[in-house]
Each structure stands twice: as structure tokens, then as C-alpha cells.
Amino acid sequence: MNEQIRATIKEIGLPRLLIAGFLLALFAVAVATHMDLRSLISDSITRVARNGILVLALLPAVQGGLGLNFGLPIGIICGLIGCVVSLNAGVMGVAGLAYATGIGLVLAIPAGVAYGWLLNRTRGQEMMVGTYLGFAIVSGMSIFWLLAPFKNPTLVWAIGGKGLRTTLALTGIYDKILDRWLAFSVAGVAIPTGALLVFGGLCFLVWLFFRTQMGISIAAARSNPRFALAAGISDQRTRIQASVLTTVLGAIGIVVYSQSFGFVQLYTAPLLMAFPAIACILIGGATVTRATIGNVVIGTLLFQSILTIALPVTSQVIEGDISETARLIIQNGMILYALTRVGKS
Amino acid sequence: MRRALLRHAVPILFAALCIAGIWVAKITPSFLLGEMLIRVGRNSVLVLALLIPILAGLGLNFGIVIGAMAGQAAAILVTHWKIPGIAGFAAAWLLATPLAILFGLATGALFNKAKGREMVSGLIAGYFANGVYQLLFLFALGSIIPFHDPGMVLPQGYGLRNTVDLTTIQYAVDDLVAVHLPVEGRQLRVPVVSYAVVAAFCVFTLFFMRTRLGQQLRAMGQDAHVAAIAGIPVERNRVIATVLSTVFASWGQLLFLQNIGTLNTYNSHEQVGMFAIAALLVSGATVSRATVGQALLGTILFHTLFVVSPLAGKALAGDAQIGEYFRVFVAYAVITVALVLHAWQAAAKARARR
Description:
- The complex is a heterodimer.
- Helices cover 70% and strands 3% of the residues of chain A.
- Chain A is mainly alpha-helical.
- Chain A is globular, with a radius of gyration of 21 Å.
- Chain A starts with a helix and ends in a 6-residue tail after the last helix.
- By secondary structure, chain B is mainly α.
- Chain B has a two-stranded antiparallel sheet with strand order 1-4. In chain B, strands 2-3 form a two-stranded antiparallel ribbon.
- Chain B is globular.
- Chain B starts with a helix and ends with a helix.
- Classes of the chains: A mainly alpha, B mainly alpha.
- Chain A binds chain B through residues 70, 118, 121-125, 127-129, 131-133, 135-136, 139-140, 142-143, 146-147, 163, 275, 318-320, 322, 324-329, 331-333, 335-336, 339-340, 342, and chain B through 110, 113-114, 116-117, 119-121, 123-125, 127-128, 130-132, 134-135, 138-139, 143, 154, 156, 159, 317, 319, 321-322, 325-326, 328-329, 332-333, 335-336, 339-340, 342-344, 346-347, 350.
């Protein structure tokens, strides 16, 4: 009996159990203090739909042997450029969203190729190179946002008339357009159907992709490069394919995120966006070398729920915002745990 | 000649950038000299703290942030106990040491568990430690840990304020032997003792590299596998190198804080790692090779750019913000390029071996 419990704990992993326990404890406090559970659950679901694609974006990188894609901001920046261009052109509604996504895709494909090319030449240090390449690009883009020749008065600073604002409001343009589509509520819990459908649809497409010949060869080259080479698959090539896919999904992810959040955040906002996404996929049970759609969905659900309800729940008990501190500890503790477990079963 | 130029391309490029900035912003030599005198004195030790892990083949120690936190915890306690002047600084230094040793042991053990991924682990460990630091000083202090000091604690009764006033120990080392030079009508503080401390760290590092342990670390840095076969206790030595680096970082942060005079409780440490590493790398040092001279040169170059960049941005585009973004961009870009070059060479070497 004892043995069995120990084996189960080992299989799920201690950190994951602790995190699930923490989430349960938060819900218990919420129930005990008579909080409105329905709004907590609604908010959690909204946050899952908002962040899900950014987490999904990490899957191809892991499956392709690139490790945890700390360079996710590269894709995010492509998507942000798409948003800014569409806003500048003043395209409204679904068309605007499609326009933003389209430009994001067009930029993300070459960016992903270049990123993959670089990662092929820096094998063994993909995570570190990705982290700092992401940092450098985000900070370099800060200069771009400040100098870019966008003239639309709703986007640039009112004083001086140049330089994009740090946050661009989407109100009346495509604010929550997916979240609202077919939205309904069950027993007081609001369901952002459109955004969930997009997340679910993309999950399905990625799942399907890893069953096509290209997808299978990407995963095969990761798990055994030499064997794959003997079968005529070059892992140089599959790694670039994986990198393009992760960057493209990152671009789509930020567009969906922005419409749900209601704002496009520029400058330093994307700097650390990869870290919570990485924590999500790891909490869901992924490792540095292996990830599934299930890991993405479960991880996003667990971690985003904690982030959503930690603030309202803990503020019942203590003053001050402990949720940010909890996020730092859980997120980075989880990543550290995964990093020390590479190469182990 | 061409090879020498190529080998020193990075510092030359950087010096050119600095000079261009100085020229554009019309910065006077006396202003720059005054700024540099302060900045080099207070930042050098943090950069020197990076050298020993590089020697041991651990790469850039992004974990020095944790050492800096140990220094800050000591500074907070000394301020609470109101120990003034050099006695306070000495107490802080003594207090920080065991803490930093403990943190260094933990970081070293982590690095041994994540071989080949020391840098990314160190970076994340820094973020993680930041969370624990916040938990301790923002929530536990004054609630779980008894701590009563209305001047330092937030009005709610627990948690430290965003800034801690360190005037009790400000300039404790800098002004231990007070030297003030009149330059163009202002009194220029020359922190003689701080420079003596920096020099002592340089001498210690140079000496350490020549000791038996230092030679073992060098051998490990060249080839950990061969070193292990030769009977060098690789894992133990890696921990020692990390501990030394962490302790240096805690002392370096204290030296930095006594000059600044205020502690931003929750931000002062955050960028320590990034700035120290970028400073080291602009001298042309790499992830696997760095010298004491490069640490000093890098500190001077990087901080020149740091001072010049916003002023040049203002002169060029009428906006200091551009310069500020630019210097952050440069810091990240320099680190990225160094990491890429390092990984590129390592990958090429691995391919050649196959």
C-alpha cells in the first residue's frame, strides 16, 4: 500500500501534487469565506482561453528537440507588429483580427526559420540562446516602437505626436471579439466560447499535425537523430520546422491574448512572457524533452486558475498582493525542477 | 595587426560607440571622470565575482543575484540595529558571508544536478530566489518573524518598505580615508579605500588562479571529463567555485550599496547579474575565458556607455528614453552574441570530434 502511494507520487511528481494541493487549498479558503465561486471559475476559464495558445506554442519546440522555448517573445513580437499594423490601418472587428494574425504569420515564418537556423548552430545551449535572443529582440523593439513611423493619433502619444503608447486599447476595435462569440453562461459561470473554440481548434490541429508525415519525422528526429538520418530525415531540417511552428503559434497566441485582454501591450511587456507559459506546460506534466496536448491543457488549467484566484482569495486573509510572489516561486520552482531532471526518466 | 584588431573587435567597437556618444552629447571630461570614478569603484567587485566560475567551466554565473540578496539581507539587519559607519559595514559584511556560503552551496548543488545547463539554471534560480526574498521581506517579516521598526516596516505592520535608507553606512568605505579633489569648482570624492578593496579582490583572484585549487579549476574548465579521470574532485570543486562567486557577489553588492546609500528593497538585486555579465563581456571576455584585466576594462567601458547613452539619446532624438532603451538593448545583445559565439564554437568542436 505504502509502496503504491510512493509509486503514484513519483509518477505524478511531487511539485505537481504540491501545486494541485495549493489550488485546492485556495478553493477551500474561497468556499470557507463565502466568496463568489462562479465568478472565480469564470475568470479562470477566461484566463485559460486567453493564455492557452501561448502554452501550446511551446509544444512543437519540445517535440522538435529544441527544449523549452524561452525565445517565445520572438513569435510574440511578430504578432504584436501584426496588431499594431492592423490598428494603424483602422481595420475593425473580425477582419482586423484576421489582418493582425495574417501579418503576424507572414513575419513569424521567416523569423522562425532564422531562429531555427541559429539554434542549429548553437546546439546544446538552445535555452540560454533563446532566452537572451528574446530579451535582446524585445528591448531592441522598444526602440522601434518609439521611433516607428506610425501616425494614427489613437496609437501614438498625445504629447509630441510620435512614439507608440505602452498599451493600446482595443475597445470598439476587436476587444474580446472571440471571447464574446457564442458566449453563454451555465449556472452563472460565463463561458468564452469563441476563444475556447480557437484554442481547442488549434490544439486539435497541432495534434493532427504530429500525426502527419512531417510531424512524425519532427518527433522521430528528436528522439533518435541518427536513426532518423538513416531513414532519410535530417534533424537540421526538422528542428527548423519545429522552430517555425513554435514562432507562428506564438504570434497567433499573442493576438488572441490581446483581444481577450482588451489591450495590446508593447515595450517591455513581452520580455518575461515565456516564463509563465513554460511553467504551465511543465506543471501539466511535460519535460524538457517530451510534451503532449494533454500537458498543455491540464497545465494551463492548473496554473492559470492559481494565478486567477490567488489574488482575490488571499486578499481575504492578508493585506497586500501575495499572488505575484506566489507566481514567481511556483513558476520558477517548476522550471528549475524540470531543468534538474533532464536525462532522467 | 589585422588579427589583433579582430581579436579585440568587441572592446574596440564598444570604445568607438562610447566616444561617439561622448562627442554627440558634448560630455565634459571632468563630468565623465567623476561619474566613472564612482561607478567603477562600486561595480567592479560584482564583475570580478564572475571570474572563478568561468575558470571552472561553469560559464557565466547568473546566480550572483542570489549572492547580492545575501548582501541586502545583511544591510537590512544592520540598518535595523542602527550600527553606524564602518562598524556597521563590517558587521554587514560578516553577516552576509555565512548567508552567501549557504546560498552558494545550494546553487552549486543545483549546478551539479543540471550539468551543461548551469547558465539557464542560474538565471531561473535567481528569479526563484527573488520570489522567496519577496515572501520573506514583504510578507513574513513583521508577521511571522517578529520585527518592529516603524521606520522600516510598511504602515500595515508587516513587510519592508520599498526603500531602506542606508545613510548609517553610506560612504563607510568610500570615505574611510576621505580624499576630496576640487575639480572645476566641485568637490570630487575619491573613494581610495574602495579602490583598495577592488585591488585586493583583483590580487586575490590572480593569486587564487595560481593555487593548486585554481589550477584544478582551470583543468576542469578545459575538459571536465579528463579532469575527473585525473582524480580531480570535479563536483566538489564546482561547488567551491560557486560558493566563492556567491560570497564575492554579496560583498560586492554591499560595497555597491554603501556608495548608493539607499536600498530599493525589491529591485536593487534584480539587474545585478545582467549588468555585471554584460560589463564583463564587452571587454571581449567569453563564456569560457575571462581575465581580471578584462573585468576591469569591461566595467569601465560598460559604465561609460551607461552614463553616455541617455545623454546621447537626448542630444540625438530629443528623448532620453531612447538612450535608456538602447543601453538595455546593448546589455542584452552583448550577452546574446557572447552566448551564441560560445555555443557555436562548442557545437563546431563537437561536430569535429565526431
